[in-house]
Amino acid sequence: MSGTSAAYLSRFRLLGRLVPGTVWRGEIALPGPALSGERWPVIAIAGAEPGPVLFVNAGIHGGEYPAIEAVIQLGRLIDPARLRGTVVLMPVVNLPAFWQRTMFVCPVDGLNPNRMFPGNPAGSYTEQLVHALFHEFIMLADVAIDLHGGDIVEELSPFVICRRGTSDPDQRAQELGAVFGLPTLVTIDAPVQPGRGTMSFLAAVERGVPAFIAEAGGLGQLQHDAVTLLRSGVMRVMAHLGMLDAQVPSCPPPERCTAFVWLYSEKAGMFYREVRAGDWVSPGQRVGYLGSFFGEIEEEITSPVAGRVLFVTTSPAVQVRGLLMGIGVPG
Ligand SMILES: [Zn+2]
């Protein structure tokens, strides 16, 4: 094998040189003073033949269990003897959130990792973690997939989210995002919520790496149909990239949404939702309301758009400016 064709085996400084046709499993330290003393599980499957390098992670949000399980299963399913290229897997990025069962954020500093990309090596714990993930893995891959789902209090209809754009990495990410096979594909220009940084795939495509998020499952449960959707989606992308010969059944083209509208409460209260994830809603349709502890309706929530409910908060405990649901708008 020539030096050039073997380059895919030695890209990841933290993993050293991989041996073709083998699987490497281990727990590794990540660079960053705030991260010292901890170790993250990584699986690297080095194909017998050269080919693309795919990085797949889950657990940026520690309570999105089907995504985590899909990565664990991929680590056992992909046969290096039949693989062209390399697959590097990280099942749980946000380990503190996983162990503490924390939603949305990392409990060490209260920051949402998926609003922090590309991270900051001199920042807080989450910013250092994101920086290490981004620079040691995502930026070294030919394609990066970040698996998510609804968090512990979110019901979700499966979807892929890509950056809207016409650059090569954007177009490639949208192509692979459609191949992934979930029923909805959303494209966005900018993060739907502000943070000190941006979302994983937005930072990656901005710097030339085709990347997208795929989401399935939720409610803090390990739904096996959602695990299968995410695991099969990754295999479909691998087959499309020529990494596998396996026949992975294709899916109908996704419904494409060009806007992602998130609804928030104005007040705090008990949230009574009147829609489910996957429902179609019309402009002006009441989708839920907030009630007081005295049983009065405090605030009616209506949809400003026609679209599909992609996730909805299931917990009735909603604070002022609480996130209630996200609606994908086809276009
Ligand atoms: Zn998530």
In this entry the ligands are: zinc ion
User: Unreliable runs, pLDDT <50, ≥5 residues?
Assistant: none
CATH topology of the largest domain: the name is: Aminopeptidase
Shape: globular
Order of helices and strands: EEEHEHHEEEHEHEHEEEEEEEE
Number of discrete domains: 2
Number of strands: 17
CATH superfamily of the largest domain: Zn peptidases
Counted by DSSP, the helix tally is 6
Please state the structural category: alpha/beta
How would you characterize the largest beta sheet?
A: 13 strands, mixed
List strands and helices in order, with pairings.
Blueprint: E1 22-28, E2 40-46, E3 49-57, H1 65-77, E4 84-90, H2 95-100, H3 125-136, E5 143-148, E6 154-156, E7 159-163, H4 168-180, E8 184-188, H5 200-206, E9 211-215, H6 224-240, E10 255-264, E11 269-273, E12 280-281, E13 286-291, E14 297-302, E15 307-313, E16 317-318, E17 323-330
Parallel strand pairs: 3-4, 3-5, 5-9, 7-8, 8-10
Antiparallel strand pairs: 1-2, 2-4, 6-15, 7-9, 10-17, 11-13, 11-16, 12-15, 13-14, 15-17
Helix pairs in contact: 1-6, 4-6
The protein binds zinc ion (ZN).
